[in-house]
Amino acid sequence: MRDKLMIGRMIPTGSRIHGLDPRAKIAAMLLFTAALILSDGWLPVVALAVLAAVVLAATRIPLKTYLRAMRPLRWLMLFVFLFQWFGGTGAGNADEAVWAWTFGPVALTSSGLSEALLAVSRMALLIVFTALLTFTTAPSMLSRGVEGLIKPLARRGTGAERFSLMMRLALRFIPALLEEAQTILKAQAARGTDYEEMNLREKARLLLSLLVPVTVGAFRRAEELTTSLEARGYRIGAPRTAYRGLAWHSADTWFTLLFALLPIAALALRLTV
Amino acid sequence: MRGWIKRRAAGKRNSEKRLDGRNPVGVAPDSVSCPQMAADRSETVIELTDTDYTYQAGSPFAAAALYGVNIRIRRGTLVGIAGGTGSGKSTLLQLLNGLLLPTGGSVRVLDHMLVPGLHKPKLNALRRRVGLSFQFPEQHLFEDTVEKDLMFGPLNFGIPREQAQAQAVEALHAMKLDESLLKRHPLTLSGGQMRKAAIASVLAAGPEILMLDEPTATLDSAARRELILLLARLCREEGRTILVVTHRIEELLEVADEWIVMHEGRAVFQGDADELGDRADELDRWGIAVPEPLKCWAEWTARLPQLAALPLPRTAQEMARRIAEAVHQSANPSSSEEEAGDLGRLEASVCATN
Q1: Which residue, A63, A74, A75, A112, is CA-closest to A92?
Q2: Which residues of chain B, if any, have pLDDT below 50?
Q3: Would A26 be classed as within a structural domain?
């Protein structure tokens, strides 16, 4: 189960991207997403893809790993592609198309195909860039980054700290709960539940049987965790020093500025063309 | 040099011992199993040949857990598997009933052969014959009554309901649990009961090979001893092959026929308790605390060289008696066994230090 879940786990290679401040990387990801949404047509998407490829190469993580991260969403991408092609906006503009086939109410056109491919490419770029953020940033640094970014927004109180603690614990619980579910599945397999020999109904019943022990386990863990946090003197809002402080360097500024240009450029391109 | 001589001596002792059958055990001699099982004992039921296992092989998170493991286990033996944290003990157990498939080499269990790259193998026939009880009983029990949990395995293996029910009750009795527990929710049992119920849930399917991952963790010392003796009885009386992962060697010393030591993914030792005793000085390097009885025996064998020729005593009483005899002989080479009173006192004092 965990083998298939790639997003959310760091792969240390010691690249320059790994060394960037998490705030810069999160901001870059948000700006990149904004640019993707604003970009209209192949030119800006290809330009963004080239930039993404350069950044991916700089992480020194093999391209294969990014492709694997996309794997769980392949059916969704296929669905988006087919939906766009069959019923998307591009399908209607039969006059602009180089070629067009009409089967009753469904019109397949070259422009529709292009639109559909564009939608899928946007989605792929978005996934790859999100994967890049989690592959190059440790979960603790990621939540520190989020805390750092939302602090100016939450002017008073302990909102930012609460949010970052919640996020950190949630991130910590995902692999723990998956592991627990996997252990129970293994215990069931050891006693003869062979998935290969089961029908869908039996599989569903088996997955339901996981619900109680995993929920009980999650509550137990949560309770133990809060007690242990309290026992070690953790209080929300109490002054606290950081184990690893965030340090903003000039590279972070340049990185963020580069990405800040993207949505501006995309918007400008959209308005001029 | 000295180690080599000791090992030679140990080899000789072993060949002598194999002639007369089994090691001394902590159960009554008349409970030793039936002759048919004794005849089968030469059969190798588990055979690992250059077995490797890597978690998430081929991904950036790949982590090798076992390297070139070679192990042979005979039918009807009780095998202790020791090793520090992360040494590959639990991975080894999961390979033996096909929960994990080897990424290199081969694993033969009974008449099933597991090799890398098997595509969707049908493993239920193997799992019926090889039971595995996991480290944490609360992760092992998932149904809403103990009875359903005990019947889960037998029903999956196609045993009719009435028979499965009977087997569940039988397994409960074998683990010395009361029938009133059958209707309880597994998570409401005490720690010791839950552990025994988890083992019973595996036993209910009637496996020939029973594997337990740290069965005595979280039990108090009396419950621990009771469980170990129960396991020994399952092995001796019913002829089951039992593999127990432990990091407390001393608790199994009395009953284990054989030991496997895992260290950093390799099987660095396989042999009986005598051979393990001879290599006690290496245990530390393998990340295992040297058990008190081995330490004590090593101290006495250094003091009284005639003890080195004897096999490692399995119980505190036996050790005390041997040391007392040797002390008596070295103090009084000519005297016979008349001074039983002195011996008794010495025995008592050694027992106390154990």
Answers
A1: A112
A2: 1-39, 337-339, 354
A3: yes
Q: How many CB pairs under 8 A join A and B?
A: 78
pLDDT in tens, A198-226: 788 888 888 887 888 888 888 888 888 88
Where would I find the beta strands (DSSP E) of B122-218? Answer: 130-133, 209-213
Q: Are residues A109 and A30 in the same domain?
A: yes
Q: With CB atoms and an 8 Å threshold, state whether B60 touches A197.
A: no
Give the global pTM. 0.72
Q: Distance between CA atoms of A184 and B242, rounded to whole angstroms?
A: 22
CB contact under 8 A, A212 and B144: yes
Tokens for B139? Answer: 């992760």
Question: Residue A146 falls within a domain, yes or no?
Answer: no
- Please give the Cα distance from B235 to B76 (Å, whole number): 6
DSSP state at residue B313: P
Contact A192 B56 (CB under 8 A): no
- The answer to whether B82 and B255 are in contact (CB under 8 A) is no
Per-residue pLDDT of B132-148, as tens digits, reads 998 888 878 888 899 99
CB < 8 Å to A212, chain B: 142, 144
Distance CA A225, CA A209 (A): 25
Q: Is the ipTM of this complex over 0.85?
A: no
Instruction: Identify whether residues A117 and A181 lie together within a single domain.
Output: no
Is A6 domain-assigned? no
A24 with A103, same domain? yes
Q: Which domain holds residue A210?
A: 159-231
Closest residue, chain B, to A67 (C-alpha): B59
Query: Domain B24-290: which topology?
Result: Rossmann fold (3.40.50)
**A132 shares its domain with A20:** yes
| Domain residue extents for chain B | 24-290, 296-353
* Residues on chain A touching B205 (C-beta within 8 angstroms): 191-192
Identify which of A68, A190, A209 has the shortest CB distance to residue B99: A190
